[in-house]
């Protein structure tokens, strides 16, 4: 696989924005266009096929990809459109099936904004999921579908802050650190969303940070969530000034060092090659 992405059209710079089931969403800066002019490109590095998306007409810096080859050969791109005060005013959605963008105004029952830290987006069951701050200073999970018709928001487990969401084994997972009820012990906890109707989270895993990290808190240089394995009970994160990539096995309660990522800058995107040919992509 060509990791230089030389198969993309002529450019000086591009940003990797998101990864979803073997497809990548990039922001491409055209060398011949005016300064700051850019376009979205969805590509498959395994087949070197790509498609340039039309302009959405929105001024947005937050975009993410929705795709599941088990359900459809078509993909969606979501743009979160923000007001001047950073609250989300609506969502623009591009469909590779129709080839057009559709904008829908915010239909959540509250005003929300993206969290200040590096946001994580999860596409699962036809919905885009991401964490937001409400105007009441509470943390929520915002959900919107590909048609912009279904909008939901509900609380994260235990009102925790700065957690991490991923899909694994067909369900939405939420990982974070939590102090126990006596206030003396920090634990790494993993919750699973059982269904959207009850909006209830079930605790899947809990382990003391002293057991896996060797200390009673989690304020460690270089700590950053990377991924939860889509099929196994594995959590990946970085730790330390050398940015060691670690893998924690929830079943065995074992921690393993994979490699050092020193010199590599986020965002870190998990990627599994997709070798299927998609009509939605072309050279």
Automatic annotation (TrEMBL):
<protein>
    <recommendedName>
        <fullName>F-box protein At3g26010-like beta-propeller domain-containing protein</fullName>
    </recommendedName>
</protein>
<dbReference type="InterPro" id="IPR017451">
    <property type="entry name" value="F-box-assoc_interact_dom"/>
</dbReference>
<feature type="domain" description="F-box protein At3g26010-like beta-propeller">
    <location>
        <begin position="17"/>
        <end position="258"/>
    </location>
</feature>
<dbReference type="InterPro" id="IPR056592">
    <property type="entry name" value="Beta-prop_At3g26010-like"/>
</dbReference>
<dbReference type="Pfam" id="PF24750">
    <property type="entry name" value="b-prop_At3g26010-like"/>
</dbReference>
<dbReference type="InterPro" id="IPR055290">
    <property type="entry name" value="At3g26010-like"/>
</dbReference>
């Amino acid at each position: 696989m060509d990791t230089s992405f030389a198969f993309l059209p002529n450019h000086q710079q591009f940003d990797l924005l998101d990864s979803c089931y073997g497809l990548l969403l990039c922001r491409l800066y055209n060398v011949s266009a005016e300064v700051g002019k850019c376009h979205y490109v969805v590509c498959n590095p395994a087949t070197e096929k790509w498609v340039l998306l039309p302009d959405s007409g929105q001024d947005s810096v937050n975009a993410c990809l929705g795709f599941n080859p088990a359900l459809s050969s078509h993909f969606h791109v979501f743009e979160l459109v923000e007001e001047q005060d950073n609250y989300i005013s609506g969502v623009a959605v591009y469909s590779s099936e129709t080839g057009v963008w559709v904008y829908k105004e915010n239909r959540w029952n509250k005003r929300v904004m993206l969290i200040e830290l590096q946001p994580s987006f999860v596409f699962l069951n036809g919905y885009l999921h991401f964490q937001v701050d409400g105007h009441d200073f509470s943390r929520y999970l915002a959900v919107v579908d590909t048609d912009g018709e279904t909008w939901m928001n509900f609380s994260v487990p235990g009102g925790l802050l700065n957690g991490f969401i991923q899909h694994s084994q067909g369900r939405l997972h939420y990982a974070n650190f939590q102090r126990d009820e006596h206030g003396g012990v920090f634990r790494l906890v993993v919750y699973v969303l059982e269904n959207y109707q009850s909006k209830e989270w079930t605790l899947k895993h809990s382990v003391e940070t002293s057991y896996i990290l060797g200390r009673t808190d989690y304020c460690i240089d270089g700590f950053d969530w990377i991924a939860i394995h889509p099929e196994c009970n594995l959590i990946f994160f970085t730790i330390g000034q050398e940015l060691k990539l670690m893998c924690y096995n929830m079943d065995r309660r074992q921690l393993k060092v994979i490699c050092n990522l020193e010199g590599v800058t986020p965002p870190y995107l998990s990627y599994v090659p997709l070798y299927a040919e998609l009509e939605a992509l072309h050279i």
